[in-house]
Amino acid sequence: MDDALRIYPGPGLVARFGDTTLVAVLKEERHEIFARELVMVLRTMAQPSLDPSAVRLARRLAGLLALSDAADAPAFAMVSYVGGGGAVFVHGDVEVHLEFADGRTEWLSGRGVLTWVDRALTDRPAAFRILPVGTPDLVADAESDLRAGVVRGVGVAFGAVPAPPSPRQDAQRPDEPGGSDTPLAATEAPVVSPPAQPGPAGSRPLNQPFTVVSLHSRPDVPPRTALAVAALPLGPAEQTGPMPDLDEDSASVDHLMEGRLGWVVLDDGAMYVLDADYVVGRAPYLSPPVQTGAARPLVVDDEEHTVSRVHAKITLNRLAVVVADAGSANGTFVAQPAGEWQRLVDDAEVTVTDGTRLMIGGRTLLFQLDDADTATAS
User: What is the spatial order of strands in the sheet that 278-281 belongs to?
Assistant: First the structure.
């Protein structure tokens, strides 16, 4: 089966990591920031060490939406089938058309929904299409073929795409957030792009060819997610505007906010941005640094009580991330990439690198740093 992912050119972001595809439609500048957060979530959750799950990923997207200002979030949709199951997640004026091997078709739309629409999939879709609502005349770039990474676009087509159904006039509003996949009746108006305007100095028009590289550069990441993408020519009808430069050393979609050094990811998929010091444990709020506001609490649930109330510390030292034990009962263990587990002795501090793992009790944390060359192991 052809697993090529065709791109519909336009002002948005399309991301593909393994068997997970995301489309975000960007109509305002602030949508760009949120879209990059979505990409970071997909990238992180695709790590094999986190036991990827489509349902867990959908829940992570729901959590990101729940904690955000509604005006900051663009319309977006995700189709994923990993970990033996699948999920579809739709927010805003985007629709997803699915076709399965047995001939079944499904249509999900986020138009008019206050929160989001989601659906668990038991079968892998044989084909799907993600497009903004009311854009049936858009044409996918036949030469595009996204295998991994991030490109500009407002939609995707995978496989033999099913035709969209006629708008339903009897659709009902869902009774609870994210709990219904019933499409809502709506008058569909075409999405009108603003006229082309020159961007600031150094910007690049979106209708010019560009090369997208993988967001992964670590040698321990399987080729499936580390594959670079060939140049993608975008159609001449596309909007002109500022375009972040993507090169092999630094992809702008990695940087969500200034002052951030990366992320720490729990083994259940929970993510914490590394832009402040943390105290880690079952009850880190008991720590004086947390009580005084000098550090944030990172709560690690542990039913077996192998994690101490105040177990470990994560400290930002200029451009380095340092970890240390906080006098825990069972100790704190660290493993650098491709290295063995080592117990931290007394007040010894270790500077982590991208891919470093931290084990406290029976729980594991993974460090993902924005610049793998910033820190070196000590």
Answer: 296-299, 278-281, 312-317, 320-325, 349-351
Nearest to 106 by CA among 3, 181, 193: 181
> Tens of pLDDT along 61-96?
888 888 778 888 999 999 999 878 899 999 999 999
Of the given ranges (143-157, 168-182, 206-220, 305-319), which has the lowest mean pLDDT? 206-220
**Angle between helices 54-66 and 29-45 in degrees, nearest 10:** 150
Count of Cβ atoms closer than 10 Å to residue 371 Cβ: 14
Count H helices and E strands in the chain, helices first. Answer: 4, 21
pLDDT of residue 273: 87
Read off the pLDDT band of 106 (50, 70, 90).
very high
Which pLDDT belongs to residue 305? 82
Rounded to an integer, what distance in angstroms lies between the CA atom of residue 275 and that of residue 317? 11
Give the number of other Cβ atoms within 10 Å of residue 208's Cβ.
12
Check residue 5 and give its pLDDT.
Answer: 92
Q: Please, which residues bridge with residue 91 across strands?
A: 76
Q: pLDDT-based confidence at 370, cuts 50/70/90? A: confident
Amino acid, single-letter form, for residue 149: G
Extract the tokens encoding 98. Answer: 């699915």
Average pLDDT in the 4-28 region? Answer: 93
355 closest CA partner among 215, 219, 214: 219
**Both structure tokens of 283:** 């009850």
Containing H/E element for 278? strand 278-281
Paired with 151 in beta bridges are 14
Distance CA 164, CA 131 (A): 10
Determine how many CB atoms are found less than 10 A away from the CB of residue 332: 26
C-beta separation of 147 from 216 below 8 A: no
* Cβ-based neighbours of 149, under 8 Å, separated by 6 or more: 15, 16, 212, 213, 214, 215, 227, 228, 229
